Automatic annotation (TrEMBL):
InterPro entries: HTH_MarR-typ, MarR/SlyA-like, WH-like_DNA-bd_sf, WH_DNA-bd_sf. Pfam families: MarR_2 (PF12802). One of its GO terms (molecular function) is DNA binding. It comes from Frondihabitans cladoniiphilus. The keyword NAD does not apply. This is Winged helix DNA-binding protein. Residues 1-138 form the HTH marR-type domain. Keywords: DNA-binding. Residues 140-164 are annotated as: Disordered.
């Protein structure tokens, strides 16, 4: 791809990469379970019993978005939502047997799709690409101290507020 002024903008490239991801997801993984929903299923497989708030924080999803996703997955009987025993304000989430089976079914498809999405990158390029995406998406988690300091004010390097 030849870079022109119109394709040099990071946001445009990120959007185009997201479009490629979405198209591959639909073709290779699922037309029923979205990639964000898979992220929820995978997080609960790895750490069952998270509260709805903890899950939203882990996946960087706001309260209304995580509530909607949980409701959709609950309606499909892929997860259960129960009140915490000692704190009735908290919803504790767990995969159902159907949810574990769905996650196990999707995981190899997701891994294959991920390979297709990044097929033109060598191993070192892929590592650098993922590290760069993490630095953009979550500077603090990436260990970038200067960005983390700015982020403590809830802003990125442009001064735009970020949800953390």
């Amino acid at each position: 791809m030849v870079l022109t002024r119109r394709t040099e903008y990071t946001g445009l490239l990120v959007r185009r990469a997201q479009q490629a991801h979405a198209a591959l997801w639909l073709a290779e993984v699922s037309t029923e379970t979205t990639s964000v929903q898979f992220g929820v299923l995978d997080a609960l497989l790895l750490d069952p019993g998270l509260s709805q708030r903890e899950l939203g924080d882990r996946l960087d999803l706001d309260r209304s978005t995580i509530a909607d996703i949980v409701l959709r997955l609950e309606r499909r009987r892929l997860l259960s939502r129960d009140r915490h025993e000692s704190d009735r304000r908290r919803n504790v989430l767990r995969l159902t047997e159907l949810g574990r089976a769905e996650t196990a079914h999707l995981l190899p498809l997701v891994e294959r799709m991920d390979g297709l999405l990044t097929a033109d990158l060598g191993p070192e390029e892929l590592t650098a690409f993922r590290r760069s995406l993490l630095r953009v998406a979550d500077p603090e988690a990436a260990g970038n101290g200067s960005e983390a300091a700015r982020d403590s004010a809830g802003q990125n390097s442009t001064g735009v507020g970020l949800r953390r």
